[in-house]
Amino acid sequence: MSNSTKIGKVYLVGGGPGDPELLTMKAHRVLGIADAVVYDRLVSDSVLDLVPAGAARFFVGKQTNNHTMPQEEINALLVNLALSGHMVVRLKGGDPYVFGRGSEEAIELIKSEVPFEVIPGITAAAGAAASIGVPLTHRGMATGVRFVTGHCRADVPLDMDWKSLADPNTTLVVYMGLANMGQISANLMAAGLDGATPVMAVSKATMPDQQTCKATLATLVDTVNARKLKSPALIIIGQVAGLADIIGPEMIAKKGSDDGEIIRSIASA
Ligand SMILES: C[S@@+](CC[C@H](N)C(=O)[O-])C[C@H]1O[C@@H](n2cnc3c(N)ncnc32)[C@H](O)[C@@H]1O
């Protein structure tokens, strides 16, 4: 870099779960001034449509063949782009700090003395919750919510504290859990969680081709396989999943249902 090159800046931006209207105003603003955008496969096409025509685009994740640019190369790309003066938006699905490796990139940027800013996004769990009518907490049903990853190496079983996770008064949201649904449901039931516990699986939440799948812990695998749910998908486990029957989109759209009817249903749930 010549002495006269002004260092740019990296924005680690949450692109939300898919619907572009769920971007924050800040994310929308910095996308508009970016001259380089580094994005991966979870960023929806409609969010990418907001990238200025003149900005250079760097796609660093490809779902087919599981070919993804190694994290070290992504880090180096961000650093090099900023050091050569670019305003870089590193666009990630959901929130950069929820299973997004945003913090690994932040550490590298700090080490390389590159200015950066984190702009949060709506994480998939929050987007899905609103979209399918499943609150993540609900008084009397779930006093808390836990986000866990269901991903592990193919040859290694999931290593989780199943006893602690099998809590009927807490909602469990499993990211990246589709491939290991069998292990997850079997371990939770073995640890004492009732097989009748409601579960909602949701694929491509907030996108036009969103798919949902209603099951119980015991029927999860068969139900999701029968529906051929596609990635990316989330699994929401807990009593709150049953509330979709009361405040889900079908109920909201249902002809003849008025606010009073919905409120009475919730009160008696
Ligand atoms: C690497 S994690 C990234 C999570 C992201 N940073 C977030 O905050 O939502 C990828 C996983 O997020 C979940 N995910 C992301 N977007 C989703 C969507 N629109 N619908 C359902 N699940 C989604 C899936 O479980 C997917 O396998």
Describe the overall structure.
This protein is α/β, with parallel strands linked by helices and 269 residues long. Strand 8 (198-203) and strand 9 form a beta hairpin. The radius of gyration is 21 Å and the shape is globular. The chain is 32% helix and 20% strand. The mean pLDDT is 92. It folds into two domains: 9-122, Tetrapyrrole methylase, N-terminal domain (Cobalt-precorrin-4 Transmethylase, domain 1, 3-Layer(aba) Sandwich); 125-263, Methyltransferase, Cobalt-precorrin-4 Transmethylase, Domain 2 (2-Layer Sandwich). The chain has eleven helices and ten strands. The relative contact order is 0.14. It binds S-adenosylmethionine. Residues 17-18, 42, 92-95, 98-100, 123-124, 128, 175-176, 202-207, 231-234 line the site of S-adenosylmethionine.
Features:
32% helix; binds S-adenosylmethionine; alpha/beta; five-stranded mixed beta sheet; Cobalt-precorrin-4 Transmethylase, domain 1; Methyltransferase, Cobalt-precorrin-4 Transmethylase, Domain 2; 269 residues
Helix/strand layout:
Elements: E1 9-14, H1 25-33, E2 36-39, H2 45-48, E3 56-59, H3 71-83, E4 87-92, H4 102-111, E5 116-119, H5 124-132, E6 144-149, H6 162-165, E7 170-175, H7 181-190, E8 198-203, E9 211-216, H8 220-227, E10 233-237, H9 244-247, H10 249-253, H11 259-267
Parallel strand pairs: 1-4, 1-5, 2-3, 2-4, 6-7
Antiparallel strand pairs: 7-10, 8-9, 8-10
S-adenosylmethionine binds at residues 17-18, 42, 92-95, 98-100, 123-124, 128, 175-176, 202-207, 231-234.
